[in-house]
Every structure is written in C-alpha cells, then in structure tokens.
Amino acid sequence: MAVANGPCGMYKLQPIYDFKSEFIELPTNMYSLHNIYGRSPDSKHESNELLNLAKQQENLLDKLRVLEMKLMEMNDEIDTDFGTVLEVSSKLTDFPIAMSKYQDIVINANPNHPPLSVWILCRLLKKQSNILLNIHIHSSVISLPDHVKLLEGDNSDDLRTNHQIVITLIWKETVGKDPEMMISPIMQAAIKGEINIARYLARLLTPSYDSGDAVSVTEIDNWLDMAHSSILHGNNKERQYILKTMNSCLGKQDFLVGESMTVADIVMWSALCQTKLTTGLSTNINKWWNYLNSCEPFVMPNEFLY
Q1: Three-state SS for 234?
Q2: What letter would DSSP give residue 231?
Q3: How do beta strands 180-184 and 103-109 pair?
Q4: Partner residues linked to 131 by β-bridges
Q5: Cross-strand partners of 275
Q6: How far apart are CA 233 and CA 178, in angstroms?
Q7: Distance separating alpha carbons of residues 256 and 268, to the nearest angstrom
Q8: Which of 56, 67, 165, 177 has the most CB within a 10 Å radius?
C-alpha cells in the first residue's frame, strides 16, 4: 500500500519577476501625476498662462483699490457734523441722540398690521435730529384704511442727503403680520418683526436702550419678546397672562422697566393697539395707558386706540 508523502504540483510556473535581477526598477510612489504647470519644478521660468493670470489678478486688485477710495470720498461728503448730543429734559422723551452717519432705511408693512412703534420712535428722534419720514403705497394695496391714511409722513421734495436719517415706509399687502426693514439694499439684509425694528431704531438714540445695566436691558428685551410672541402672535390665554403680569409690574412702578419710559413701553403700547386689547384694562395698566396717550409722541387716531 502506497503512503502519500504530501501534495505534489501538477504544473510548474516560472516567476513573473526575478527579484534577484539587477535590471528591475521598482517604483518609488504609488501614482504618477502629470505636471499641471507644464514645466518641471526646478524650472526658473513661469509659463505664459501663469503670468497672464497674475496680471489679471493685479488688475482686479487695482480696480478694487480705486473703488474703495471712491467710496471713502463719498462717505466723507455725506458725513455731517451732528456730534453734539441734545438733551431732552422731559421724563418721557429722555432719549439724547448723537448721530453722525447717514441712515437710509426702508420698511415694508401690511396696512392691516401697522407697526405704530415706528411713528413713536420717529417722533422722538425728530425732536433731536433731522429726520425724513416718507410713506408710499405699493401697487398690491387695493384700498388703504382711512385711519391708516392719517398716519403722517413728510413726503417732502427735500433732498434725502439733507437729513441724518431717512425712513421710507411702504404699505404692502404682500407683507405678512410682521413688517420688514431693509437696512442694506446691496446685501438684501432684512430685519423682520416690529420688535426688532424698534430695537434698531432705539439704538440710533444715544444712549442706546441696551447701553444701560445688564439687568434693565434683559428686562426690556424680555418685555419686547413677550409683546411679539404672546400679544401680537399669541392666543387669548397667552394675552391674558401677559396682561396680569403687566398689571402686577405696573402696580410697583410707573413704567415696565425702571423709572422712565423705554422702548418696552412703546412696543407694548403698539401691540395693545393692534390687538384691540385697550378696553377693560385693569387699574394699573389703565393708569399707564392713559398717561402714555396724554403724551405728544403717542397721539394717534381713535381707531387705533379703542
């Protein structure tokens, strides 16, 4: 009986490479790439394509520098000397302002939801600075309500550059409940919501509403957020809760934050007007409401107030 001593090869193949050979040149990298510059790395001469590209880049940079200089010259031309801070002694209008740059602001608003705080802030700014407020009607508006027509605007033929601040309000039916403010037409940067527009306009005043102590600023922002989310966009339950909170707060002080009027009072007043929550007010809110209505900046047609 034969005993198997292990497998034996049926075929015998010659090796593909003879690694002992001195003629084999092994690769030193996995992939070989073509030179995208059309020259060897050691070449001292740039290709024509690279030279042309470098020239184009330098031309563009030169044009940008010229444009930058022109913009700087234009900025100096429209810059006005309004560095003096005007103080207003009234408790209500204690909003000094120091404006030195030209502001061109466009606000789009739905006539069914007029942002009344814009008029209040504009009137306060007008007491202290040179402001132009223009009002226009977009073609989307079929009929403007009579009481909205009574909201005044300057609409003068005076040059816009003669004013520190130019605000153009456009009534648009295509705008939702929240107005939109365009502060950079080139970048198409828009600020949405009445409370955010009020924040921006209040920052044009010096000192800004958010330049006070951190606690007061936080309280103002909290009231602004409540006016937006719980009054303007809230349901009846949310609104009643905020009214109770307001009544409790105004039972301890004359204004929502601190001892003088702030943008929180302005926006909350506007929100109550728009939502028709101005009747049947509790004692403390009614006292606050009547005081604001007796002040000149808050004069509005009765259709807004009741």
Answers
A1: coil
A2: I
A3: antiparallel
A4: 165
A5: none
A6: 10
A7: 9
A8: 165
d(CA 144, CA 112): 9
122 by Cβ neighbours in 10 Å (0-12 / 13-18 / 19+) ranks as buried
pTM above 0.85, yes or no: no
Contact criterion met (CB below 8 Å) for 121 and 266? yes
- Both tokens assigned to 260: 């003088």
- pLDDT by 10s per residue, the chain, length 306: 555 555 556 777 777 766 665 666 666 767 776 666 555 554 545 567 777 888 888 888 888 888 878 777 776 665 544 333 333 334 444 444 444 457 888 999 999 999 999 999 999 998 888 888 999 999 999 999 988 998 988 866 667 778 888 899 999 999 999 999 987 666 667 889 999 999 999 998 877 888 878 999 999 999 999 999 999 999 999 999 999 999 999 999 999 998 999 999 999 999 999 999 998 999 999 999 999 999 999 989 888 877
Matching residue, tokens 């003088």: 260
What lies within 8 Å, CB to CB, of 101 at 6+ separation is 79, 164
Could you tell me the two tokens for 50? 């690279």
**Residues constituting the chain:** 306
Q: Which two tokens stand for residue 62?
A: 């030169």
Q: What residues form DSSP beta bridges with 192?
A: 180
